[in-house]
Specification:
single chain; 221 residues; alpha+beta; four-stranded antiparallel sheet; three-stranded antiparallel sheet
Length: 221
């Protein structure tokens, strides 16, 4: 028996229609790891499958649906990742990325918080960089043709996204306003400033330039 899609969600893009749907009616992204549950394997939405991360990067597979990517790459970024142009998540198809930005409970609801309880053993051990765990309230879909993988300094891989061809911003399942994006950036900036101050004046200068560069892609109004 196939679980129906949750009524509050938009219809799935064609590429996402092959994804399994969990008991709550949410599609399970391709990257999600499956763990042992009381009645068999269940999806752990908070954790990624490391093997799939490697395959996504090497074979250029969509992080959400798992099928082959084309020329254009869409990264779903938090606003601070749009400033640093750094992310731990490989790219997607545009339609998969935008559907996720509009419908993922954590991305589309600014009040949502990440569950910390009953985490599977080892969850987070493979996460690169220093994550900002707050809910930023807005998400960016960054369209580019390229990305590069680099070492975060602890032996874990991070991704630098290429120059943007376009950027769309989303909040609560709709297009975000410039004021909402600016407010979210202001809320996350203290964490980036703290990290930059540890690295010295040049890092602070670089952060300022990165912030100005990202502002070129904010919504017009």
């Amino acid at each position: 028996m196939t679980t129906p899609l949750r009524a509050t969600l938009e219809p799935l893009p064609d590429r996402m229609k092959s994804l399994r749907v969990d008991e709550r009616g949410y599609p399970v992204p391709w990257f999600v790891v499956w763990v042992d549950g009381p009645d068999g394997k269940v999806p752990e939405f908070r954790a990624m499958d490391v093997d799939k991360w490697v395959r996504a990067v090497k074979l250029r597979l969509c992080w959400v649906c798992g099928s082959a990517l084309g020329r254009w790459l869409a990264f779903v970024l938090g606003p601070m990742c749009a400033v640093t142009r750094t992310t731990s998540e490989p790219p997607c198809h545009r339609e998969c990325a935008e559907w996720s930005a509009r419908n993922c409970p954590f991305l589309s609801d600014p009040r949502a918080v990440r569950r910390e309880g009953n985490a599977p053993p080892g969850m987070g051990e493979n996460t690169a960089g220093i994550p900002i765990t707050r809910n930023p309230g807005v998400a960016a879909v960054w369209i580019t043709r390229s990305f590069e993988v680099f070492n975060d300094g602890t032996g874990k891989p991070l991704i630098t996204v290429g120059e943007a061809e376009s950027v769309s911003w989303w909040r609560e399942g709709r297009v975000a306003t410039r004021a909402e994006v600016e407010d979210s950036i202001s809320g996350g900036m203290p964490a980036l400033l703290t990290a930059a101050r540890r690295d010295g004046p040049f890092a602070i200068e670089q952060l300022g330039e990165a912030t100005r560069r990202a502002a070129r892609w904010y919504p017009a109004a």
